[in-house]
Amino acid sequence: MNILRCVIGILGISLAFFTTGWSQTIALITSAVMITSILHSLLLRHRLQQLVDPDWAFQGQTTTGSDQLDLLSRAIRDGQKKLAGRIDRLAAERDRLGVLLEGMAEGVISLDAQGRINACNDAGQSLLDSQGDSLGLRLIEVLRVPALHEVVRQALQGHGGEAEFERPDGRNHLARVRPLQQGGAVLVVLDLTEARRLERGRKDFVANVEHELRTPVAVIQSSSEVLVTHGALEGRSLDLAKAIHRHAERLGSLIASLLELSRLEAGQFSAALGPIDVHQEIERSLLLCQAHSEASGAKIRHEQAGDLRILADRQALEQVLVNLIDNALKYGGESILVAARPAGDHVEILIEDDGQGIEARHQDRLFERFYRVDGGRSRDRGGSGLGLAIVKHLCQAMNGSVRFEDRAPQGSRFVVSLAVAPESVPDGAGLAQSS
Predict the structure, then answer these.
(1) How far apart are CA 213 and CA 211, in angstroms?
(2) pLDDT score of 137 more than 70
(3) φ, ψ for residue 353, nearest 5 deg
(4) What gap in Å lies between CA 317 and CA 319, rounded to an integer?
């Protein structure tokens, strides 16, 4: 409205002073130039204000033509300040990103749409066959790995992938390549040399334990059993023979657990998955734990909740249940509950006890190998510290999980979660292999 009043005023003044034809024409031209100048100033200020402040609205401004230059100057100064602030923030973000990239042990290499290197960190530069700066060079010129180049080619076309390769110095690497939305790709290269060395060491360990320890321990165990049961030993000699036999059994159990856990962690266990009736399997496991239950004096209660069938490996599930029930008998109280309940597309098997529970500081580490809440008590009761680690890996091999739930001060609860079996498959039929 202010602009419209200004235009009408200028036209009125011009026509009032110039009444003849040529005079009116000159007045109209002069007015048009003045109006254009004012409008251009307003529109320029409006555009600058929008650039520095997108939420600024042109409508509702009540300024008059006399202060347009002041407003324009102020808008330019505000724009300079905001632009400087944004530049500073971008520079700080760039510096933080640079520090993060340089601190990474993984090599990071960025490529443009033509496969030329436009950025890399120190770890990435060390992988390249280039003595100097590699920026601007094509990756194929400084890293001659055919399998990697194929993955990069696919990434430049919009499809990510990964490739494992070995360098001439014998080091193993895994490269993950991802495309960029604006063209180009980014490579993240991991050094797998240490992981491969540990994997070979694990395999050697299993082989050595199998051949160098298991056999002599079995001989000691059987020989000491003969001495205890059929020998003519008495007094101190008989006590020593019993101690040898007891510790040989414990060592044999530890070796067997170590071998089993090593195979599980190495992915060498293949679970034969099939539909299993949960409550029947719980009854079988309770029967196996009956002698231990009677010796401990604890009462075990089995709650049944309808017909529940799960997809599991029968032997693996039995081992999981026996291990958890055995732990409850060793460390729980006087009452143990074993139950199953539906949980969506899974079935949860619960093993509860009314013992002293487990302190919060131990709960996150329960499934680690060799971890004991009370090391002395565990050893006295025959615990190796490997049982829960084996349980975790067996559950994962059956595409399930196991977790601990704190019930303090009422005791502990372990929950095994496994998938519901398809109804169309008969009980006991194998469905899949999980490795």
Answers:
(1) 6
(2) yes
(3) -135, 165
(4) 5
pLDDT in tens, 14-58: 544 444 555 556 655 665 666 666 656 666 666 555 555 555 444
Put residue 391 in one of left, alpha, beta given phi > 0 → left and psi -120 to 50 → alpha: alpha
Instruction: Please report which residue ranges of 132-234 form alpha helices under DSSP H.
Output: 139-142, 146-156, 193-208, 214-230
Longest dimension (CA), the chain: 147
φ and ψ at residue 132, rounded to 5 degrees: -110, -150
* Closest to 320 measured CA to CA, from 349, 353, 299, 292: 349
H or E element that contains 191: strand 185-191
Tell the residue number behind the tokens 């599980």, with chain if given: 264
Do 402 and 395 contact (CB within 8 A), yes or no? yes
Which amino acid is it at 90?
Answer: L
What residue segments make up the domains of the chain, in order of their start? 2-96, 104-191, 199-265, 272-434
- Topology of domain 272-434, CATH: Heat Shock Protein 90 (3.30.565)
Q: What percent of the chain has pLDDT over 70?
A: 74
Q: What is the mean pLDDT of residues 108-124?
A: 87
Q: Using the Cα atoms of residue 226, residue 229, residue 235 and residue 238 in order, give the sign of their dihedral.
A: positive
- Looking at residue 64, its amino acid is T
Please give the Cα distance from 375 to 389 (Å, whole number). Answer: 16
> Taking the model in full, what pTM does it have?
0.53
| Topology adopted by domain 104-191 | Beta-Lactamase (3.30.450)
CB–CB of 42/4 below 8 Å? no
8 Å CB contact between 154 and 115: no
> In residues, how long is the chain?
435
* Cα distance between the two ends of the chain: 78
